Each structure stands twice: as structure tokens, then as C-alpha cells.
Amino acid sequence: MHRILHIRRLVLGNACRTAWYKCCSGSAGKMRAVCVDVPGGPENLLLRTVPRPQPKSGEVLIKVHATALNRADLLQRRGLYPPPPGESDIIGLEVAGTVDTLGPGVKGGWGRDDRVMALLSGGGYAEYVSVPEELLMPVPPNLTLCQAAAIPEAWLTAFQLLVFIAQVKEDEVVLVHAGASGVGTAAVQLVRLLGAVPVVTAGGPEKLKMALSLGAAAGFNYKEESFAQGVHDFTGGKGANVILDCIGGCNWKQNVSSLATDGRWVLYGTMGGRAVEGELLGKLLSKRGSLLCSLLRSRSLQYKADLVKAFSQRVLPCFSDQHASLRPVIDSTFNLEDIAEAHRHMEANRNTGKIVINLIPPN
Fold it and tell me: How far is CA 134 from CA 32, 108, 169, in A?
């Protein structure tokens, strides 16, 4: 009789433990993430529980502490900028956090709880994201994870445009549109790092003040004055050697007027419209100007890996060297539960620098 009772206790105990493990493993396999079932406004951003990604070969699972907003996020929410095939449908192009799990075949020497930041093709608005190890970067020791989340997309975009696409040279004048945006504030600092001269446009005195404090040599309020005239005055009529343009259509006449002979006009966004009416080609031809177009999200893994490697070698040390010559500019922070309000803040064009979303409250 005692033996029967003992066996029953073992069976019941094992059953309870099995149920407990199933419950825990089910919970461990889930995460909170922001989803969009129907494209539309910020109110369509839904916070729900979804399956946690599993790292594939060569990938690292990151426990996300913070992510950041980008203009591309607003387009994706509205159904106008879908992720590349095979990538996560969850919005978010950059994160900072800690290493949770290493997938098979990871060779980079990453360890659990290492502080990392990463460029993504999607998946950033979530508690976990799986990333090819080639796209990981160590977080500089003097930066918080909140600050680090403001680096990958904006700074890699600016670095790519300036170094890979425009091939900026020392002493060249670089006109940076939206000079107080995430990419803009990064570009101003990078132009200085490259030994060139940044000038900016922005939509208000406070934004111009920020850009000037970061090293811009001149700034023009596009709402109140002709930036083309400002560039001509600043350069003695020579024009800007490089233009970083996320505006597009509505600015084309002033851009061509601002461009130096043999200059490079780098288009990476169309916030001001895609349509162009007028003699763009003739005017560009008369300047012997180059119109270069670039997107980062749709690039190959190898291209992004090369970009991350070059940035890590040339730029990343400048965030933590003795003088800390570079710094991410953060406008505001929100909790994940307030993601809709964060989107509204960006859509109203109120931000100067990056908008960061904290998933884990900073210490």
C-alpha cells in the first residue's frame, strides 16, 4: 500500500513538474511586440504578445532594452514601405540591448549579457530580436543602452551616404537637409570628422541652434529664407560639393542652384514629394552634377556587413575616446506602451535628434 502511494506521488509530482515546465517554456517562448494589423495612423499600432524569434545559424538573439524611431517606420505603419522579403513584419530598424542566446555557428566571440547595438531590416519594436552577427556592434562603454539605440540606423545611414556614396573629401562643403534630424545630427558630426565643412537646413531657430552646436558652419531656416541663396553667400558663389537630401521633389530647383560644378546630390528620401516638374535634367547637366540615390534597408547582408565593419573601425572609437568627439542626439524617450504618441511626435516634426523607445527602464 505504501509502495502504491509512493508511486502515485511520483506520478503526480512528475505530472505537476511537466505542466510547470510547459507553462514556463510557453511563457519563455513569447514576447511583447508592436504589431500593425491594418495600415493607417498611429492608433493602429497594437502592443500584443507574439512568439519570440529563435536565432538561426550565424545569428544572435538580443534582449532589447531600447529601440528608436525612423521616418521609415512611419511609412511602414501606413503600408508604404514593406520589409524586404523574409524579414520581420514588426517595425523597427535599430536596437540596443544585451546578448541573450547565440545561434549555431556564431564566430564573433560574443558572450551572454554583452552590451550590443544592431542595424535591422525589421523587428526592433519588440522585447527580443534575432540579428546576423555581422550587424552587431559593441556599445561604447561610456554610453547607456538608451543612447546606443540612437546610433545604428541614423549613423550608419549618414556614414554610408558620406563615405560609400558621395565619397566626401577634405574641405568640401556638404549641405545637409533636415540638419536637426537623427541622420542630420549624425551627418553634421561625421562631415567634421572627415575634415569637410557642413552647412544645414532646418525648420526653426532651435533646430538650427542644435546643428550649429554640433559643428555646422552655417544654417538656413528653409521656412523663412532661400537656402540656395544662403549656400551661395557662404561659398562665394561656388556652391556645395555634396548635398544630402531626404526631401526630394519640392526642393529640386534650390538643390540644383546650390550644387557646385561637378557636385554630387545624394537623394535618400522623398519627404517633400516624388514628382518633379521642370528642366531638372538640363539644369543638372549644365552643372555636370551627379544625382546619386541610395536606400540602406534593401541592401544585401554583405553590403551592410561591410558598412558596419567600416563604421566600427573608423567612427565607433570616437564615441568613447578621451575627448568623446561624437555623441548621439536624443530628443525624447517613450515607453513601449506609448509608441503611438512617439509616432505622433515624429509626424508633427517636433523632434530634434532621435526619439528613443525604452523597453526596459534605464538604470
Answer: 25, 8, 28
pLDDT band for position 321 (cuts 50, 70, 90): low
Work out the pLDDT band at 362, boundaries 50, 70, 90: confident
SS (H, E, C) the chain: CHHHHHHHHHHHHHHHHHHHHHHHHHHHCEEEEEEECCCCCHHHEEEEEEECCCCCCCEEEEEEEEEECCHHHHHHHCCCCCCCCCCCCCCCCEEEEEEEEECCCCCCCCCCCCEEEEECCCCCCECEEEEEHHHEEECCCCCCHHHHCCCHHHHHHHHHHHHHHCCCCCCCEEEECCCCCHHHHHHHHHHHHCCCEEEEEECCHHHHHHHHHHCCCEEEECCCCCHHHHHHHHHCCCCEEEEEECCCHHHHHHHHHHEEEEEEEEECCCCCCCCCCCCHHHHHHHCCCEEEECCCCCCCHHHHHHHHHHHHHHCHHHHCCCCCCCCCCEEEEEEHHHHHHHHHHHHCCCCCCEEEEECCCCC
Which amino acid would we find at residue 247?
I
* pLDDT per position as a tens digit, 192-241: 999 999 999 999 999 999 999 999 999 999 999 999 999 999 999 999 99
Say whether pTM exceeds 0.85: yes
Q: How many CB atoms lie within 10 A of CB 338?
A: 15
pLDDT digits (tens, 9 = 90+) for 251-260: 889 999 999 9
CB 42 within 8 A of CB 344: yes
190 grid coordinates: 561625421
Among residues 357, 361, 331, 332, the alpha carbon closest in space to that of 126 is found at 357
Query: What is the Cβ-side half-sphere exposure of residue 176, based on CA atoms within 13 angstroms?
Result: 37
Alpha carbons within 13 angstroms on the beta-carbon side of residue 159 total: 20
C-alpha grid cell, residue 88: 520581420
Amino acid at 130: S
Residue 360: is it exposed, middle or buried by C-beta count within 10 angstroms (0-12/13-18/19+)?
middle
Q: Using the predicted structure, report yes or no on whether residue 27 has a pLDDT greater than 90.
A: no
Is the torsion defined by CA of 142, 161, 311, 167 positive or negative? negative
